[in-house]
């Protein structure tokens, strides 16, 4: 095709040239060009034939290559499908293992957090401050604890179990009750109790600080009994030592027990003093009543025996004189009053005796109603203190909120102390009032019994008349 185009161009050029040089030259040139074009056409055909042959050969090669590649493609596609299935299975297995791993990770971290909270309050942590770093590594959020972290956590627990059954004596530092660093002898009993002794002999118990890395002294000192036991143990002379199995709650009360009575009463506010006054007055009245009633009970039998002896002998004048001399005793006053009605009927004698007994009842029951009132007033004053304390507490909450419990402790103390004190005063008063009331009833019953005996003695001596005899005499 290219040769034909070239031939046409040459032909056109020659045609143009022929116009200038003449037809002869043009004819010769055309013949030459035709001959050359023929030769070129033959060459072109040969080239095309060779190219067709080469293209055919290459086409066959390409078809064979395509067939081979198609076969390879099918093989690879089958392998790919199998790999997809394998990938899906592995993804499912990976998801299951990831869930299991997440569960294990959560369990380990939860256990590590519990261990951190526990070791913050453990007495053994100040001896092993490296525990905090170990737990911090296990609790790193971006890192799985791994087998090493699990092994370290297990080691901490096993060490703590071993420490719970051991007794350790050492010299160490701690924070004293004054907030200053101290150094002294330390004794740890398992994981329950740790105590100290300073060079000056001061004894006390220890508990961990809020961070758990140091020990601090518990406010207050043990009593002399505990101090003696602890000194013997520190000196190696004893094998007994006080242990607090409540994890510090019992020894923490030492600070409260060190408070004096006045401090405790002062926490109750002004209403504590009226309650104390009620208790003092009630106690004074109870003592007076016990003394008076016990004195009456002791002399009543002796006086009555003497009176009956005089009655049996008919010594009426001596009997009246004796009752007058012993008029400070109710029995004698009643008998003396009854003697005025000798020679009357039995009904008159009994009425005279009952009249004398009724006159003595106010003296016997003296202050008992007052004690009853005081027993009722004491808890009411305590209740008033409770209401006052709660009002103060709510006022503090209104002004400062609930952020600082110490701000509310004053009102709560006032509410609780007054109630406690009021009940502590009222209950004994009620019990003692009942005891005194029963004693008065016993004395009255005894007097009635003696009055009946006195009436019988008068009847035997003929000093009690029948109504018919009195009517006849009249």
From TrEMBL:
InterPro entries, per database record: ExbB/TolQ_transport (IPR050790), MotA/TolQ/ExbB-rel (IPR017270), MotA_ExbB_proton_chnl (IPR002898)
**Signal peptide: which range, if any?**
1-20
Q: One GO cellular component from the entry?
A: plasma membrane
Membrane topology term reads: Multi-pass membrane protein
- Location of this chain's protein in the cell: Cell membrane; Membrane
Q: Where primarily located? A: membrane
Query: What is the protein's given name?
Result: Flagellar motor protein MotA
Organism whose genome encodes this protein: Pseudodesulfovibrio senegalensis
What taxonomic classification does the UniProt entry list for its organism? Answer: Bacteria, Pseudomonadati, Thermodesulfobacteriota, Desulfovibrionia, Desulfovibrionales
């Amino acid at each position: 095709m290219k040769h034909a185009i070239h031939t046409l161009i040459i032909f056109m050029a020659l045609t143009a040239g022929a116009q200038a040089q003449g037809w002869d030259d043009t004819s010769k040139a055309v013949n030459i060009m035709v001959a050359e074009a023929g030769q070129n056409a033959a060459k072109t055909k040969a080239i095309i034939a060779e190219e067709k042959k080469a293209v055919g050969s290459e086409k066959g090669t390409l078809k064979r290559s395509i067939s081979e590649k198609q076969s390879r493609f099918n093989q690879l596609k089958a392998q790919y499908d199998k790999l997809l299935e394998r990938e899906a299975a592995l993804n499912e297995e990976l998801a299951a293992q990831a869930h299991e791993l997440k569960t294990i990770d959560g369990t380990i971290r939860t256990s590590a957090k519990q261990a951190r909270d526990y070791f913050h309050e453990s007495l053994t942590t100040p001896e092993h401050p490296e525990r905090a770093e170990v737990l911090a590594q296990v609790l790193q959020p971006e890192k799985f604890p791994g087998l090493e972290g699990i092994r370290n956590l297990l080691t901490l627990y096993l060490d703590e179990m071993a420490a719970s059954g051991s007794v350790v004596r050492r010299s160490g530092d701690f924070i004293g009750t004054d907030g200053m660093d101290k150094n002294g002898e330390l004794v740890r009993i398992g994981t329950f109790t740790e105590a100290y002794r300073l060079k000056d002999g001061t004894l006390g118990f220890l508990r961990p600080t809020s961070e758990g890395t140091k020990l601090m002294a518990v406010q207050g000192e043990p009593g002399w009994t505990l101090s003696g036991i602890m000194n013997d143990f520190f000196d190696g002379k004893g094998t007994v030592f006080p242990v607090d199995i409540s994890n510090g709650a019992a020894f923490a009360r030492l600070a409260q027990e060190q408070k004096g009575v006045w401090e405790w009463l002062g926490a109750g506010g002004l209403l504590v003093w009226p309650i104390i006054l009620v208790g003092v007055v009630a106690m004074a009245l109870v003592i007076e009543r016990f003394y008076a009633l016990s004195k009456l009970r002791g002399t009543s039998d002796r006086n009555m025996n003497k009176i009956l002896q005089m009655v049996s002998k008919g010594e009426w004048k001596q009997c009246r004189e004796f009752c007058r001399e012993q008029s400070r005793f109710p029995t004698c006053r009643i008998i003396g009053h009854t003697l005025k009605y000798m020679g009357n009927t039995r009904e008159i004698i009994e009425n005279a005796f009952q009249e004398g007994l009724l006159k003595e009842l106010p003296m016997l029951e003296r202050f008992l109603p007052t004690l009853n009132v005081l027993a009722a007033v004491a808890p009411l004053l305590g209740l008033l203190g409770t209401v006052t304390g709660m009002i103060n507490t709510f006022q503090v909450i209104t002004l400062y909120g609930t952020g600082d419990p110490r701000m509310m402790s004053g009102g709560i103390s006032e509410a609780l102390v007054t109630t406690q004190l009021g009940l502590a005063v009222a209950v004994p008063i009620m019990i003692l009032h009942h005891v005194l009331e029963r004693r008065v009833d016993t004395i009255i019953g005894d007097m009635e019994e003696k009055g009946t005996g006195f009436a019988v003695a008068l009847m035997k001596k003929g000093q009690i008349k029948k109504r018919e005899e009195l009517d006849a005499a009249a």
